[in-house]
């Protein structure tokens, strides 16, 4: 079974599309997509030799030849023309930004991005490019992770609140998002107790306003 984080990403992938998983490591997501009939073909991209060998081993062990396709590539540099959806997950913001800066975002139907760091910076980047955030989910998997679906469709820049907390998440206010905010609030209160700062207090008020 895959992690709750990867499962959330899998649930945001339209059936029967061709997916490119950037930085696939053990090819867990591509294998899951194919083995569960969600996709017939998934590219598992890797920039490093060790993880690429992990991909090749998984494909061989699970008999997924021709369905999960290992690609030695920095980001989408070697992506074929038939790719519909791109997944970039489990990396830091700066790596994700490098991958997005180096590709033609317009070529793809949509991206699913999950950054382990600076999700607000990632949303700011999406906003500055005038891309459209189409969906967002928070998933708990030992930590809270955010998965953002965006496309190159034109959108006016998002507000500061939308960049910080997510336009769709703010609109939907689902249970996991609110639990994530409660968690953030608790942590901020502890930090602020130890070292009082105006910026913490401002953020506490901001989150309290959303939760109410
Ligand atoms: N995507 C999987 C996940 O979410 O569980 C694996 C994440 S793993 C922590 C990050 C992987 O991204 C590493 O195997 C690394 O080699 C790969 N990676 C980092 N930069 C990359 C790039 N520019 N292009 C392709 N792969 C990259």
Q: What is the helix fraction of residues, given as a range?
A: 40-55%
User: Which architecture name of the largest domain does CATH use?
Assistant: 3-Layer(aba) Sandwich
Please summarize the sheet with the most strands: 7 strands, mixed
Q: Work out the count of structural domains.
A: 2
What is the string of helix and strand elements? HEHEHEEHEHEEHHHH
Tally of DSSP helical segments: 9
Bound molecules: S-adenosylmethionine
Morphology call: globular
Provide the structure class.
alpha/beta
Low-confidence spans: none
Q: Calculate the mean pLDDT score and round it.
A: 98
Would you give the CATH topology of the largest domain?
Answer: Rossmann fold
Strand content: 15-25%
What is the top-level CATH class of the largest domain?
Alpha Beta
CATH superfamily of the largest domain: Vaccinia Virus protein VP39
Across the major sheet, the strand order is 3-2-1-4-5-7-6
Number of distinct beta strands: 7
End-to-end Cα distance: 36 Å
Q: Using only CA atoms, what is the Rg?
A: 18 Å
């Amino acid at each position: 079974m895959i992690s709750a984080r990867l499962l959330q990403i899998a649930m945001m992938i339209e059936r029967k599309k061709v997916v490119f998983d950037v930085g696939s490591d053990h090819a867990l997501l591509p294998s899951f997509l194919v083995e569960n009939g969600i996709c017939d073909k998934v590219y598992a991209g890797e920039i490093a030799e060790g993880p690429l060998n992990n991909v090749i081993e998984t494909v061989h062990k699970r008999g997924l030849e021709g369905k999960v396709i290992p690609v030695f590539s920095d980001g989408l540099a070697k992506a074929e023309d038939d790719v519909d959806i791109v997944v970039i997950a489990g990396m830091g913001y700066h790596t994700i930004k490098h991958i997005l800066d180096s590709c033609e975002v317009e070529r793809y139907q949509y991206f699913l991005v999950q950054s382990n760091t600076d999700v607000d910076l990632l949303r700011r980047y999406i906003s500055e490019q005038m891309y459209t955030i189409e969906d967002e989910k928070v998933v708990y998997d030992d930590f809270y992770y955010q998965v953002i679906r965006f496309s190159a469709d034109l959108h006016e820049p998002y507000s500061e609140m939308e960049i910080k907390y997510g336009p769709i998440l703010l609109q939907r206010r689902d249970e996991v998002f609110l639990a994530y905010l409660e968690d953030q609030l608790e942590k901020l209160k502890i930090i602020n107790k130890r070292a009082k700062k105006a910026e913490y207090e401002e953020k506490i008020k901001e989150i309290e306003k959303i939760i109410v």
